[in-house]
Each structure stands twice: as C-alpha cells, then as structure tokens.
Design goal:
Layout: H1 10-25, H2 31-46, H3 53-60, H4 68-83, E1 134-141, E2 152-159, E3 162-170, H5 178-202, E4 211-215, H6 218-225, H7 237-248, E5 252-256, H8 265-268, H9 273-285
Parallel strand pairs: 1-4, 4-5
Antiparallel strand pairs: 1-2, 2-3
Helix pairs in contact: 2-3, 5-7
Length: about 300
C-alpha cells in the first residue's frame, strides 16, 4: 500500500519507522555469532592489520551483550578488509636515520635520578649478528569511550624499519585532560620498551643505542624529558617518575613530533581515510623503499 495514501499523517509514520529502526538496532544478538566474527578480526590484528585495531578494540567491548547494530558495524569492517586486502606487514631491515633528531644532554646530577642506569641482564648471551634500532610511537585518544570517559592508548614498535608490535587498549582510569592520557600512554610505551630491549638481549640481538620514542603532546614530552620541569597533577606521579627515570638513564630519547606524522594515531583513533592514508600507506601498502613514497603508482 502506498504510504502517501494512508490516512495517518507522515509525522506519525516517521515516528513508527524510527521506533522500529531503534528496536531493530538494539535487539539482542546471539553472543556466539558476534564472538565468532570478532575473533576473526582479532586474528587479523594479530597478523598486523593495525588499520582496524582501534575499531576491533572498541567493538570487543560489546562482546558480553552485543546488539544487531554492533554486528552491522562489524560487517562494514569486513567490507573494508576486503577492499584493502592488499595490505601486508612490510619487512625492512635497514636502520632508520635519526641524525636530525635533536638529543638534549641535560644534567640530571642535581635531580632524584642522578644515578639512574638502564638495567642490563648480566646472564644474557654475547650479542651477534646485525644490530637493531628500536623506535616507539605512542598516542592517546581522550574520551574515547563516551559511556565511561576512558581514553584509548595506542603504541607502535619498530625494529629498524620493520613494525613488530602494535598495542591498542582502553586506559584503566579516567583522565580529564589530554596531558594525563598522554602520560599514561607514555608510561605504557616505556614499560613495553623495557620488556622488548631485555628480550632482545636475551635472544642475543645487538641493541643499537637508546630507544627513540615519539609523541605528539608537547607538554607531556617537556614534562618527561626536562630535569627542572615539575609535575602539576599528583595522581600521575608514578607515570611521571617512570618516564623521567628512563630518560635520565639514557635508555630512551623522548622526542616531540607533529600529530600528522605520528603513526600511533592509527591504533588509537577513529580516523578518516584521507587523513590517515599518508601514514598507513608506507606501513602496509607500499612495496620497496619508503623514501620513494609518492602519489604516483607503486613500483612492481
């Protein structure tokens, strides 16, 4: 029957359609079905499809009581993977050139970190083979979860020019400012860096110099790397001291970069294709040397 010929007003019809749509989207979905599709996406993340990491982290939060609307969103993620199915984790063994990265040799002798040193295992085997340079990018998305107010931490680790690990997870506490969320993300990246450097030494891999850690929050970088910078929020004291001690020991070089160059935006934010493509293309979709990434067609 033609809706235009109904005796009911169009306003009433629109209201009924809206109620039906809300009921359909919020209808409870069988948990087993949703868990299966989310499990497959989590396996894709394990295979380094970092472009869906933040989305999978978000949708996994509804695994206990999924709705039909959640399943529809997951279907869109499968459609994205099918369209962008040529993405692979590129293995590049060349060392990155950090000669233009500013290294500030501050005097920590008058601080509480005056004798800070990196803990190097004494029972590790003798390093052999080619050396590796470790790089870490970290970022935080404030108010990622609108229900709880929690931020999302994103960290990406590189050995030489190869991405070897990606981390995306909601923070345990609620932060009211970007500074606090970034400090929590920096502490997480620092802890992972300690673990990774120790693991490499026990595997007999020569670790080249300090870890270069990049973040896009200037206040957090200054607070974590300058000796005379003081902390204004006491609830961040433990994260503050852990980051500064790692910097004072020489294990980490903490450097600020522009937000448009921070690849940790990929696992920490819900991004648009146009904005993230310059960062995503060299990691997953470019064949060959990334120094030649241009707008032209990729080399064969």
């Amino acid at each position: 029957m033609n809706l235009l010929l109904c005796t009911q007003s169009q306003k009433t019809l629109r209201r009924r359609v809206r109620v039906w749509v809300i009921y359909t989207v919020n209808r409870v979905l069988p948990r087993m079905r949703f868990s299966d599709v989310i499990g497959a996406l989590q396996w894709c993340v394990t295979l380094r499809r970092i472009d869906i990491h933040s989305a999978v982290t978000t949708m996994s939060s509804f695994n206990a009581a999924p709705r039909v609307g959640h399943l529809e969103r997951v279907k869109r993620m499968y459609g994205y993977l099918y369209k962008m199915r040529h993405g692979y984790n590129r293995v590049r063994t060349g060392e990155p050139d950090y000669s233009d990265v500013p290294i500030h040799n501050y005097d920590w002798s008058h601080s509480v970190y005056y004798n800070a040193k990196e803990v190097i295992p004494q029972d590790a085997p003798t390093p052999k083979g080619n050396r590796v340079t470790h790089t870490a990018y970290f970022d935080a998305n404030l108010y990622h979860n609108v229900l709880t107010g929690k931020a999302l931490t994103g960290v990406i680790h590189f050995l030489n020019q190869t991405m070897i690990d990606c981390y995306s997870r909601k923070q345990a506490t609620v932060e009211s400012a970007t500074f606090g969320a970034e400090f929590i993300a920096g502490r997480t990246a620092m802890q992972q860096t300690k673990d990774l450097r120790t693991s490499l030494r026990y595997l007999g891999v020569p670790v080249n110099g300090p870890t270069y850690m990049f973040g896009d929050n200037k206040s957090m970088i200054t607070n974590g790397s300058v000796p005379h910078s003081k902390l204004g929020k006491r609830h961040l004291a433990l994260a503050y001291h852990e980051v500064r001690q790692a910097v004072a020991s020489g294990m980490v070089v903490l450097t600020h970069i522009d937000g448009e160059l921070n690849v940790a935006d990929i696992p920490s934010k819900h991004w648009s294709y146009q904005k993230i493509w310059p960062l995503l293309r060299p990691l997953l979709f470019w064949h060959g040397d990334t120094a030649h990434v241009t707008k032209t067609k990729e080399p064969d």
